[in-house]
């Protein structure tokens, strides 16, 4: 198994945990927005690293 995307998937998982636990807060919207921003950041980094990996392997 390749480990080039492990940190990105970890960030996406943390963001999803923020979103899931936001329902237990009195004001869930800041936690939802924070979780969505973490997920979005993780997805952007994942896409950029996937492009870099494809270029490195010559599949671009």
Structure in words:
This protein has 60 residues and is mainly alpha-helical. The chain has one domain (3-57). It is 75% helix and 0% strand. It has helices at residues 6-21, 29-57. Helix 1 runs antiparallel to helix 2. The protein is elongated, with a radius of gyration of 15 Å.
SSE map:
Blueprint: H1 6-21, H2 29-57
Protein name: Putative secreted protein with PEP-CTERM sorting signal
Keywords: Membrane, Transmembrane, Transmembrane helix
Transmembrane segments: 7-23, 29-46
Summary keywords:
elongated; mainly alpha; 60 residues
Helices, by number, come to: 2
Q: Determine the strand fraction and express it as a percent band.
A: under 5%
Radius of gyration: 15 Å
The backbone outline, from C-alpha atoms, is: elongated
Which runs of at least 5 residues are low in confidence (pLDDT < 50)? none
Structural class: mainly alpha
Write down the domain tally: 1
The largest pleated sheet is described as:
none
Please sum up the structure shown:
With about 60 residues, the protein is mainly α. The protein is built from two helices and no strands. About 5% of the residues are buried.
């Amino acid at each position: 198994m390749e480990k080039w995307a492990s940190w990105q998937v970890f960030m996406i998982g943390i963001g999803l945990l923020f979103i899931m636990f936001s329902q237990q807060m009195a004001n869930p919207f800041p936690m939802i927005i924070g979780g969505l921003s973490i997920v979005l950041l993780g997805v952007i980094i994942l896409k950029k690293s996937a492009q870099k990996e494809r270029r490195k392997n010559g599949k671009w």
